[in-house]
Amino acid sequence: MTNDEKKDKKVEVTVDRKKHHVRPGDWRVSDFKAEVKVEPGYDLDQVINGQFMPLDNGATITIHGGEVFVSHVPQGGSA
């Protein structure tokens, strides 16, 4: 596989029950949210084995394909 073919390869992920095609590999969470059209102020959780794992905007995630994510308004804080 050439470098151009690797660069153009896309895998499918699910965000909020919608399918998205993104490049596999490492992503900063904030960049991934922008790529899959999640509001910047929303939190993003990755669903792993039925558990919701919160993702920090500055963290790095690795996309292989088949991952499932859910976005939501931030929770907690003072009222």
Q: Can you walk through the features of this model?
A:
The structure is a single chain. The protein is an alpha+beta fold and 79 residues long. It has helices spanning 3-8, 29-35; strands at residues 11-15, 18-22, 25-28, 43-48, 51-55, 60-63, 68-72.
Which key phrases capture this entry?
16% helix; 2 helices; alpha+beta; 43% strand; Ubiquitin-like (UB roll); 79 residues
- Overall number of structural domains: 1
Give, in spatial order, the strands making up the sheet with the most strands: 2-1-7-4-5
Overall mean pLDDT stands at: 91
User: Rg to the nearest angstrom?
Assistant: 14 Å
Level of helix content? 10-25%
Q: Please give the alpha-carbon distance between the first and last residues.
A: 54 Å
**Poorly predicted runs:** none
Apparent shape: globular
For the sheet with most strands, the description reads: 5 strands, mixed
According to CATH, what is the class? Alpha Beta
The SS-based structural class is alpha+beta
N-to-C SSE string, H for helix and E for strand? HEEEHEEEE
Tell me the CATH topology. Answer: Ubiquitin-like (UB roll)
CATH architecture: Roll
Tally of strands = 7
Strand content: 35-45%
Number of helices: 2
